[in-house]
Amino acid sequence: MSKLKTIFFIFFCLIFVSSCKEEDDVYNVEISDATEVTASSASVTVYITNALKRDGSSFGVMYSKDKNNVTRGKTIGTSEMKNQQTFSLSSLDANTTYYYIGVATIKGQQYATHTTKSFTTKTDSEQ
Fold first, then answer.
1. Contacts of 32 (CB under 8 A, 6+ apart)
2. Rounded CA gap, 74 and 85, in Å?
3. What kind and span of H or E run contains 80?
4. pTM, entire model
5. Cα–chain-centroid distance for residue 52?
6. What is the C-alpha to C-alpha distance for residues 67 and 80, in angstroms, rounded to an integer?
7. Cα 52 from Cα 106, distance rounded (Å)
8. SS3 state at 78
9. Which of 23, 19, 42, 20 has its CA nearest to residue 32?
10. Which of 44, 66, 99, 101 is deepest in the core (most CB within 10 A)?
11. Phi first, then psi: what are they for 110, rounded to 5°?
12. DSSP code per residue over 91-113
């Protein structure tokens, strides 16, 4: 009977260990609407769930004038992981629509917001 108990114990341990998962392995990247929009700059905030400081982790904003190529546009980011970070987009063209997404790289995996947002910079006369 002790062999059966041993087999049961090993089986239970294997199932338990295989079902364990770190809670911080689930990440969700969100991004705010643009604020402080001028003719040449804007601010956006990226939010990430379960953000922990890890080697090789970073997050930021990708933005472009081309809605279909946001990921090929400019990127501004940081390696300082926290739950949110505000980024200032500068040297923008006046009276121009920009498209942007929030991005993160954690443990070598890439994450991004599910939607692309946009804002239009002000004209020089609106300053």
1. 44, 45, 46, 47
2. 17
3. none
4. 0.74
5. 13
6. 28
7. 9
8. strand
9. 42
10. 44
11. -100, 140
12. SPPTT-EEEEEEEEEETTEEEE-
The position carrying tokens 């809605």 is 67
The number of angstroms, rounded, from the C-alpha of 101 to the middle of its chain's C-alpha atoms is 8
Per-residue pLDDT of the chain (127 residues; tens, 9 = 90+): 566 555 545 544 444 444 444 444 567 888 999 999 999 999 999 988 765 555 557 789 999 999 998 988 888 887 666 778 899 999 999 999 999 999 988 777 888 888 999 999 999 887 6
Structure tokens belonging to residue 86:
């505000």
Strands 97-106 and 117-120: antiparallel
Tokens of 110: 């890439």
Give counts: helices (H), strands (E), the chain: 1, 8
Q: Which two tokens stand for residue 28?
A: 């969700």
